[in-house]
Amino acid sequence: MNKTFILAFFTCLISCLSPDDIEITSDTDAKSLDDFLRTAISDQEGVILNKVVVFDDQTESAQLKFDTLTIKKDLKKLVEFSFARLIRSTNYNKTIQKDGVLFERKLKEKKGPISIEVGKSNLGLINSLRVKFEEENYLYQSNQIIQLSFAGKKLVNYKIEEVQKLIGMDPSSQSIEVRFEKL
Question: 20 to 30 Å CA-CA from 106: which of 30, 83, 120, 133?
């Protein structure tokens, strides 16, 4: 009787926890990347964005006031998921390099980026991030590379390159490059 009561109590307790309250064992580098991105994509005073967009062969450029919503919209694929929840030893291979860490998705996996390359300085601070996505189904193919550069704990520029191909159509490409400049 007591064992049944205790089991029912723990089952109720566990089911009441939200998924965010349950601690998931993950890679420490992935956790630190999540924390770092949250702080790096923050408001910066006295900074403007120089944005250049190339779609196929048409180029447009603009100078914009610093806006975290614009940046988060461009970097939506990185901001919308947690690297700590995504990267596990069962679905990613981790390689420690002299200047950072490389995570490569295992062949059997179909979800998440193909590779995540985190560049680190001599002091162990993150100074670059390169993430490669590939998506493919019967009607659509897409390859996207997102590169970010950091100075200290602030984002200083990023570049997004993407090639898309719909079945029966020519491939289209786009590139977004944003540099942060002080006023």
Answer: 120
Q: SS3 of 44, please?
A: coil
Q: How far is CA 64 from the centre of its chain?
A: 23
Sheet with 126-136, strands from edge to edge, namely 58-65, 47-55, 172-182, 154-166, 140-151, 126-136, 115-120, 100-105, 92-97
Cβ–Cβ under 8 Å, residues 108 and 90: no
- Domain borders along the chain are 25-182
pLDDT of 93 > 90? The answer is: yes
pLDDT digits (tens, 9 = 90+) for 122-142: 888 899 999 999 988 889 899
Beta bridge partners of residue 47, listed in sequence order: 182
142-146 long-range contacts, CB within 8 A, separation 24+: 144/77, 146/75, 146/77, 146/78
Model pTM score: 0.82
Alpha helix stretches (DSSP H) within the chain: 2-16, 28-40, 68-74, 76-79, 83-86
Q: State the Cα–Cα distance between residues 115 and 97, nearest whole angstrom.
A: 14
**Which token pair is 57?**
């062969």
